[in-house]
Structures are given as C-alpha cells and as structure tokens.
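Appendix B, record 7
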Amino acid sequence: MAASIYDIARRLNLSAMTVSRALNQNEKSYVSPETRRRVMQAARELGYTPNRNARALVTKKTNAISVWIDHLHSSVYAQIAEACRSQIQSAGYDVNICEMGWHFQEPAKYHRAEWAVDGVIAVDPPSEPELNEYLNLLPAKPLLRVNIGSGHGVVWSGDYVRVDLQSGTRAAVKHLIDSGCRRIAYATPSWVNRAGLGNFSDFTDTVAAAGLIPEYIHHSDWSLPGIRASTRDYIASHGAPDGIYCHYDEIAIASFRAIRDLDLKIPEDVMIIGCEGNEFMAYFDPPLSTIAIPVNEMCTKAWQLLQRRMADVHAPAEALMLSYEFYNRESSTRLSLGNDSPCTPPGSY
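Structure tokens (predicted):
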C-alpha cells in the first residue's frame, strides 16, 4: 500500500498540513528548511508518491499542459511537438501530447482530449466554429489556449502565434522567376486545388503576375513512394518544369528522387524549393532549399503567451505574426554562392 502524507506526518510528529506544504513547496506558507528536509527524506524512505488528482483538487491546478497537434508523422510537426515539450517541461510542468486528427475529419471524430490540464497549445487547429463544436463535446472545456501554426485562411481568435508562409511562398516563387525559371509548378496534396487553400493563391498570383502560366502537380497519394511515382508520371506526360515549389518538404524530398530517377539534374534542369524547414533538407546532394518555420521562436512565444494567460485570464488577447526563413541552398541556386544561412527576402516581416 502506497504511503500517504499522513504516514509521513505520524513518523515526524507533524501535522498533515505541514507535510503537504513542505512537499508542495508552497512559497506562501512558511516551512523551515530543516522541516522540509526532514519531510523530503521521510518521503523517500517511505516511498511516497504524490497523488496528482488530490493535489489538483486542493490547488485548482494540474501542473500539466496539453499540446494538441494533428499528427506526429510529419517531421515539422514532430519538431514543433519537441520544441513545445522542451519549453513546458523546463518550466516544471508535465506535458501531454495529443494527436487530434482534426485536419480531415468532422469535429465529432477528433481525438477526445479529456485529461484535465492548466492550458493548451493547439498546433494548426481548425477554424473557430469547428474547434468550438469539438470543445463542446468535452466534459470539461479547456479555457486557456494558444493557437500556433501557419494555417492560411483559418480564422483564429484569442491568443495565437502565426507564421507568414504566404509571404514566404511569394518570395520562393519570385526567386525561381528571377533565377530564369519559365515553367514553374506547385507540387501539392490533391486538396490544395483552389484559391483559399494552402498557399495556392500566393503561388498562382505570383506566377501569373510574371506573365507565366502556373502549373500544378497534385498528389492524391501523399506517401513518399506515391509522390515519387506521380511526379515521374507528370514529367513523362508534360515534360519537366524548370522550377518546382513544394507545399511541404516531404513532397520536395520525394520530387528530388523522382527527378533523379529521370536522369535530370538539380538545379541545372529543375530547381526545387520546399516549405516548412525539415532539418534533413540540408543533407541532400545538392542540399535542398526551403521556406522554413522558425519552430523554436514560435513555440517559445506560444509558451510565453500561455503563461501570461494562466497568470491573468482577463489579459487582452495577443496575436503575433512571425516571418519565415528562406534557406536558399544549391537546389535553387544555379551559380553556387556557398549560402546555407537563412535569409529573409525584402518585403517580408
């Protein structure tokens, strides 16, 4: 049977309240350093384990934070989850990471995140009406939340940190145009097929403004083998574009392989730029360019906003917009400049 605070109190001839204050290190209630030392030693000797539920009932806090994220099988989401975890745990909180599955399902089918927590960081959540529909299904609706991500066209309210990948898309496409590309394709999942979805409009408008005809490589199979195959099929049917901008970096990685399959050279025959900032992009030959999300900065600011909200639930909402980082590597530089550092093109913020 697990030891309780009453067992510790009896051994030390202290009140249960004093033991509780010593274990919780409550700064508002004075417990002498010597008493705290004795309590901690007795707790170790008796094998005491804190009862989180009981503590939450007393303190009205769980000392836990949830990170809600659609999935963890993309590299950028895994990086975001890790950056959030590091920030939160370094502040002494426990972290609960929930794969929500909310991008392509109705709210009733989202993962039921029912653990009581002090706050939530939501990564690329759906629109406010859909999110509220989901929250209303939960037995206890989390009140303190910060949204983060790059969801273009998705309206959020309250505190959030958004990354301006739309300006990044325009900068990437303009770079391809300025580098001499005249057939530029947007490689995307099949659902990014009209204005208002992903970075479709930013790509299309930038290419059209240069007097060029936008091309689209839509992938219905989003697996790496599927993208590789459909990229080969597109080039076999239409010839190779001389520039490809990819909706996310895994598409760029599979497109790279498809282009090599066809004995085409990068960047001499086809330039490639990805999006999101996969850390593995730098390790290809040639290294692959990408419009990167500043993951650490985004997660740091999100945690700061959530801490501020937890300290003052009535504080005014704060919305932050972060700039992208353009890692212009050899895959989009025909004359190598030896540049593998992030650059923020003019006009971004």
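Remarks on this record: The radius of gyration is 25 Å. The chain has eleven helices and 13 strands.
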